[in-house]
Amino acid sequence: MTATPATATGGALVDWPARAAALADELAAAGKLASPAWRAAVQAVPRHLFVPRFYVRRDDRMHALAADDPATSRDWAEQVYTNTALVTKLGHDEPGGPPVYLSSSSTPGLITRMLETLDVHDGHRVLEIGTGTGWNAGLLCHRLGAASVFSVDIDPDLIETARARLAGLGYRPTLAVADGALGLAAHAPYDRLIATCSVPSIPWAWVEQVRVGGVILADLRAGLGAGNLVRLTRTAPDRAEGMFDAGYATFMQLRHTPGSSPVPFMRASADTPVSESATTLDPRTPWSNRVVWFLAALRIGRRYRLGYTRGDPRHGPEAVSIATADGSRAEIALAAGEHGAHAVRETGPARLWQHVEHAHRQWAAADQPDWPRLGLSVTPTQQTIYVDAPGNPLATLTTPAV
Ligand SMILES: C[S@@+](CC[C@H](N)C(=O)[O-])C[C@H]1O[C@@H](n2cnc3c(N)ncnc32)[C@H](O)[C@@H]1O
Fold first, then answer.
1. What span, in angstroms and rounded, lies between the C-alpha atoms of 151 and 135?
2. Atom 16, ligand 1: residue with shortest CA distance
3. Ligand 1 atom closest to Cα of 136?
4. What is the mean pLDDT of residues 380-388?
5. Whose Cα sits closest to atom 11 in ligand 1?
6. 301 or 374: which carries more pLDDT confidence?
C-alpha cells in the first residue's frame, strides 16, 4: 500500500482501518490468522498508536522514523501496518558498543499465530510477560475484556506509556512493573501465560501461577539463534509439559534489570587457535539446522559469538568461528580437504566444536527430529528436552531456572 504524507500528520493515520484490514488479509493469506475473533482484534486495535516512533537499520546504523517528524512520517506510515517487528527502544551495554534492542512491537503475524496457539476462551484470565508497546495487551483486551488481562514489563517507562495508550482506547488492564520471571503472583491463577520475551528455561513461578490444565507459551532460547516457541500445559501441580512449535520464532531475551542485556556483548578473542584436528561434519550444517544448533547451544552455554574468519577477499570467508567468554575458540574450515574432512583449529579451555559434533550425533541418533517432535517437561527441579514423548529424553537444561 502506498501512503501519502497527509495520512500521517502527527500520528493521525486517517486511513488506518483500511491498512489494518489489509494487514489482517495478508496474515490470513499467510496462514497466520484464521479466527474471526483475532481478526476483529487486529482490525480494532490501531497499531500505529502504540508505535509513534520506531527504529530501522539502514547502512548499518539505526534511524528513527516518527509519526510527528515530517522528514520520516511517510516512511513511518508505510511500515506501521506491515508484518514486521518494529524496534521501539534502544540501549547500549557499553559506551560506543553496538545498539541493544530493549523493546519492540513484535511481528504481527507472529503475535496472531501465538494468540491462536494459546487457545483462549471467553472468561480466560491471561498473563503477558513483556508489555512493551502495549499493542498485544490491546489485542487481548479486545478479545477477553480488560479485566481478564494482566501484563508486566521490567521497564517502568514502557508500562507508563502502554497504560496511557491503552486507556486512550478505553482499555484498563492490570499492568505492573515487575521482573516477569517472577510472574504476577498477586493476581494468580491464570488460565494462560504468554511470554513475548525469551527465557533460557521456564521460570517455575509461571507454572505455579497457571492453573492445572492451563497453558504457557514462550520462546525457550539457549543462546543466539538457538531456540523456538514451546507450548506447555500444566498437567499436574508439580509438572508442565508440551511440544515445540512447528514454525519458528525468536524474541528478545528476558533481562533482570531494565536497560541492560542479560548476556552482555562479548568481544571476540584474538587468540590464535592452537590444537588441530579434522571433522567430517560440514560447519554449515549446525547453522542451517536450528534443532542441531539448539542442542549444541545447550552444551556450549548462553554466551558465545559466531562468525566467519576472513580469507582471501576474492573467495569470501575461510572458516566458521565460535568463541565463548572463557577464551575458548574454534575455527572450522568451510572448504573440505581430503576425504571430505574440514580442518578444525581450537584454543582455550573448552573444545567447542566437540559440543557441536555431539549435538549433531544426538540429533542423528534420535532420527533427525524437527521442532514439532521435540518436547519440554518442567518440574520444580529439572527441565528436560524429549523426542516425541517424555520417556525419550534428549537433553537436560542446565541453565538455572530464571
Ligand atoms: C518484544 S518486546 C514485547 C512486545 C509487546 N508484547 C508488544 O505488544 O509490544 C519484549 C519486552 O519484554 C520486556 N522484558 C524484558 N525483560 C523482562 C522481564 N524480566 N520482565 C518483564 N518484561 C521484560 C522488554 O522490556 C520488552 O518490552
1. 11
2. 254
3. 8
4. 96
5. 130
6. 374
